[in-house]
Specification:
This protein has 262 residues and is an alpha/beta fold. The protein is built from eleven helices and eleven strands. The structure holds magnesium ion. The site of magnesium ion has 3 residues, from strand 2.
């Protein structure tokens, strides 16, 4: 190969490596659009791993009797039972749309252990009191650590009470703040490691991505579901994109590499 061609090839490879290191795909509530999956189901986590997502997001709440369950809404099932005021027995047989029963966090983490490609982006949900949120946070961190999964779990939350507690009890973990109520500088001052903002925050403040990086924060963005938005966020150089369409995002990233867009 001629020297010029070789240099061009090397430049391409370096650039593509830089891109793949730059923006990673996170499947929102798992890859739940895959056959046989449902939002926050164990199958959705398995499917995200199978298509080699960098991360699979899930939501965690705690029952009154202390069981951690994976579910997005505060209420669950046809009777709309409020999880934080229910005992686990009352909700354990509730079935997701794919036929699975509602997973506990312990079941979810056991499955995570088997994942070869995917880490878990674990959202700790709002509970009605600080006391409940702190109990849930401590119990989650204890379980993650006990199962040897410290490095395979990134934490996210809308609640400063939860993020603050995470910084205190899991100081080496990734902790990103989800709400639009803080600027990057405020997030940094509280000791969090990243932001995980709605994409509109970055449309309003496109310089925030650079500011985050200068502050040493990493940048995740939710929930980016169209190719147009995916390209916008890739142009801004975010570190992670959270999407309900992980395979579409993988295709967009692949095509950008082919066209040398970084
Ligand atoms: Mg979530």
């Amino acid at each position: 190969m001629k020297r010029k061609n070789l240099l061009a090839l090397l430049a391409f490879l370096v650039a593509t490596a830089a891109l793949s290191a730059q923006t990673q795909v996170i499947a929102h509530r798992g890859y739940w659009r895959a056959p046989g999956a449902a939002q926050n189901s164990i199958v959705a986590l398995q499917r995200a791993d199978q298509i080699k997502c960098f991360g699979s997001e899930c939501d965690v709440l705690q029952t009154r009797d202390g069981v951690l369950v994976v579910n997005h809404d505060a209420h669950i099932g046809p009777d709309k039972i409020l999880i934080e005021e229910a005992d686990y027995d009352q909700i354990k047989d509730i079935v997701l749309s794919n036929g699975e029963t509602v997973p506990t966090l312990q079941q979810y983490l056991k499955e995570l252990k088997k994942c070869k490609n995917t880490l878990l982006v674990l959202e700790i949900k709002e509970h009605s009191t600080d006391q409940k949120m702190i109990r849930a946070t401590r119990d989650i961190v204890k379980m993650v650590n006990r199962m040897g999964l410290k490095k395979k779990v990134y934490y996210i939350s809308f609640m400063p009470t939860i993020c603050d507690e995470l910084v205190r009890i899991a100081p080496k973990s990734q902790v990103a703040y989800l709400s639009n109520k803080m600027t990057p500088r405020q997030v940094k001052e509280r000791g969090y490691t990243g932001v995980d903002f709605h994409y509109s925050q970055f449309q309003k403040n496109p310089l925030w991505v650079r500011e985050c990086h200068e502050l040493g924060l990493n940048v995740n963005v939710w929930t980016v579901n169209t190719e147009e938005l995916m390209n916008q966020m890739l142009d801004l150089g975010v570190d992670f994109i959270t999407t309900d369409y992980p395979e579409v995002l993988q295709k967009v990233i692949f095509e950008r590499k082919l066209h040398g867009i970084f």
